[in-house]
Every structure is written in C-alpha cells, then in structure tokens.
Amino acid sequence: MTAMRTLAVDTATEVCGIGLSVDGRPQLELIINQGVTHTKVLMEGVRSILALAQWELSDLNALAVVRGPGSFTGLRIGISTMKGLARALDKPLVGVSSLEVLAHQASEGYPLVCPMIDARRKEVYWSLYRRSEDGLEHAHAEQAGRAAHAADRVDAPCLFIGNGAMLYASLIRERRQDAAFMAEAALNAIRPGLVATLASNRIAEGFREEIDQFGPVYLRKSDAELGRQADSP
Description:
- It is a single chain.
- By secondary structure, the protein is of the alpha/beta class.
- It is built from eight helices and ten strands.
- The strands form two sheets. It has a five-stranded mixed beta sheet with strand order 3-2-1-4-5, sandwiched between helices.
C-alpha cells in the first residue's frame, strides 16, 4: 500500500512553517522566523524540506495549508501558493484552522483549551475546546474579540495557548485567577507537522477542498478596511 505523503504550509502569523507527514505521522518540520515576508522564504523552504526528505514534488499525495484566522497577507500568500501547487500536481488540498492546530498542541490535564492568535488592534482570534473521553470537542465558535471576553467564557481550569495568549497573559490571569494556565513558550507557535497530520486524517476520510472556492478565513475586516471606516465621515 502506497504511503500518504503530505506537505503542509503555515503562514498565519509572522512565523513561516513547512511540514511533511507520512500516513499522518510528522516527519520533518521547517520553522522560519527571520522577520522577512513569507513570499521571500516560502517556496525556498518547500524546496529545502523536500530535499531533506529526498522527495520530489511528484512524490506528494496531498497538500495542506492553514486557512486562518491570522495575518491577512500571510494567509493569502500561503493559500495562493498551495492552491497553485494543488492545481499543477492535481493533488487534493485541505485547509486547517490555525486555532484547531494550537488546541491539539495543548498539554493534556486541563478540561478546557483556549487557543489565541494576536489579531492586532487590541484583539485576538480565539476559540474554546473542551476535553472529553473522545478527545477535543469544539465548545465555542471561532471569533475575533478582546482577550478579556474570551477569558470570561472559561468556566473550568483552562490552558491558554498561542501568541495571543502570550501577549495578554497578565490580563487573562487577572480575569480568571486560579482557572487560567499558560502554555509553555515552545507550544505557542503553530507546528506545521501537526497541520500535515490533521489534514492527512481528513483526506483519509475522503475530504478535499474545492480549490476554486477555497479561500482564507478572516473572521473580521482587514486593518486597512477598518482604518478606512474609522476615517470615513
């Protein structure tokens, strides 16, 4: 039986991540955090990680990309790149939520997990997951808003994870006191290998995106649009 080889890309934040998995198991990850735009490093990163794995593009069975929420520009770069590869290679493409990936990275032992990504303008993108015997269950829809609003939704010990949780850690602890716990620093960046794993699982279940209709999940208007609205008479 042929192994399922998946390439995943994350450009939702300032960090550019590229990962490979085989049959859903992470194999290689490349994390680039040099303060340069994703357009300058993404395809070079893809070529580098494939070379390390001794794979060709034609060896890939599937492609995955973080669909958002996150940086508007970053998401457009990652998604347009992976849509182009999916068309050129005629391979299935799957989009994965940035918040879902963070939730699955969270340490066990907490009834709730609240992934947060910095949305700027003093807001975060956030969601809430509850642990059960079957794993993580979505307990609150993804949305953009104040970190305090997210913290106020917590009704049990909760692990906050992501760069948004790091940014507003003091505020969150103040709001929830004994119920708020912060993830280790190493867990707060999206792991592209896990993106590949989650996508591979969905592809194995028969899911794939309709490439022409597939696009980023933003949750709110861009900073430029919000700025124009604020400047309008």
